[in-house]
Specification:
This protein has about 300 residues and is mostly helical. The chain has eleven helices and no strands. Helix 2 crosses helix 8 and helix 3 packs across helix 8. It is rod-shaped, with a radius of gyration of 33 Å. The mean pLDDT is about 80.
Length: about 300
C-alpha cells in the first residue's frame, strides 16, 4: 500500500513539475494539462516557450528549405523540457527504497524475536537486498537515457490524435480572431478564409514545433511514469528477486548446515543441555535392551 501511494504521488509530481517551461494554448494562454497547476503557481515563470523554440530554430538552421525544421530541434527541445525528470525519478526511487528498508526492519522485529539471530540474518540478506536496489537504480538510468537521448519514438496513436487536435484548434482560433462565432451563419469569402492559415514560414514552423513537442511530451510522460512503476519498482524491488521477497522457504532450504550454524548457533547452555539429553537417551536405550534380554554388544 505504501509503495502504491508513493507511485501515485510520483505520477502526480511528474504531471505537476516535469515540464521545464509551460506549453501554450492556441490563444496564447498557459496550458495546464501537463502541469495540472494553477497558472499562478509557476513562481514567476513567465518564459514564453515560443521564444525558446524560435531561438533554437533559428540557430539550428541547416540546409533544409525555409519553413522546414531541422530534426535535431525537437530532440534538443525535448531534452530541455525533461531536465527535471532525473531528479524527480531518483527522488521517488530513493523514497521507495527507504520504505522497503523500514518495512523489512519492522517485519524482522516482529517475526524474529531473538535480536542476535535477527541481526545475523539481516547481515546475510543485506548484500542481496542492496544488489536488487542497485539493479533498480541501473534500470532507472537506462530508462532515462532511452527517453531523453536519441530520436523521439512512439507508436502511441494518441500522439497523432493530440497533434491533429492541436492543428484543428489553431484553425478554430484563427476563425474566432476574424470574428466568426460557432453556430452562426456567414457569407464566406474564400480569400479571407485562406488568411486564417497564412503565416510566415518561421511562425508556421514554430507553431508546428510547439504542437508536435507538446503532443509527444504528453505520451512520453505517461510512458515514462508507467515504465518507472513497472520496470524499476515492481520488477526490481517488489518482484521475486527483490528485497521484499528475498527471504523465502526456498532460500532457507538452500542453506547448508554451516550456514544455519552461523545464523542460529546454540549458546553454551543449550549445547550442554543437548549433550546431557543425548547421554540420557543412550543410557535409556541400553536399559531398554537389557530389559528386553538383548545383548549390549
Amino acid at each position: 500500500m505504501h509503495v502504491r501511494m508513493a507511485n501515485d504521488k510520483f505520477a502526480k509530481d511528474m504531471h505537476q513539475k516535469a515540464c521545464t517551461t509551460p506549453f501554450r494554448n492556441t490563444d496564447e494562454s498557459l496550458d495546464d494539462y501537463l502541469e495540472h497547476r494553477d497558472k499562478d503557481d509557476w513562481n514567476g515563470e513567465t518564459t514564453n516557450i515560443y521564444n525558446t523554440i524560435k531561438d533554437l530554430h533559428v540557430t539550428s538552421r541547416g540546409t533544409e528549405l525555409p519553413g522546414h525544421v531541422n530534426p535535431t530541434v525537437l530532440e534538443t527541445l525535448f531534452a530541455q523540457q525533461t531536465t527535471k525528470w532525473p531528479a524527480l525519478a531518483n527522488k521517488h526511487l530513493g523514497h521507495v527504497i527507504k520504505k522497503i528498508w523500514a518495512f523489512n526492519d519492522v517485519l524482522w522485529e516482529n517475526v524474529c524475536l531473538d535480536e542476535a539471530v535477527r541481526k545475523r540474518i539481516q547481515a546475510r540478506l543485506d548484500p542481496e537486498m542492496e544488489e536488487s536496489m542497485d539493479a533498480a537504480k541501473t534500470e532507472l538510468q537506462k530508462i532515462l537515457h532511452d527517453e531523453r537521448t536519441g530520436p523521439l519514438i512512439t507508436d502511441n496513436h494518441y500522439y497523432a490524435d493530440n497533434l491533429a487536435k492541436a492543428r484543428a484548434e489553431r484553425v478554430v482560433t484563427g476563425l474566432k480572431n476574424m470574428g466568426f462565432e460557432d453556430g452562426e451563419q456567414y457569407t464566406m469569402n474564400f480569400r479571407e478564409m485562406t488568411s486564417v492559415a497564412h503565416l510566415s514560414n518561421e511562425a508556421s514552423a514554430i507553431h508546428d514545433i510547439h504542437d508536435t513537442l507538446k503532443a509527444y511530451c504528453t505520451v512520453a510522460l505517461k510512458r515514462f511514469i508507467d515504465n518507472v512503476s513497472l520496470q524499476v519498482i515492481e520488477r526490481n524491488l517488489l518482484g521475486p528477486a527483490g528485497p521484499v521477497n528475498v527471504f523465502t522457504s526456498d532460500y532457507v532450504g538452500k542453506l547448508d548446515a554451516s550456514d544455519l550454524a552461523h545464523i542460529a548457533p546454540e549458546d553454551f547452555q543449550t549445547s550442554n543441555m543437548r549433550s546431557e539429553l543425548a547421554f540420557v537417551i543412550s543410557q535409556l536405550e541400553k536399559a531398554r535392551k537389557i530389559c528386553s534380554g538383548k545383548s549390549l554388544g
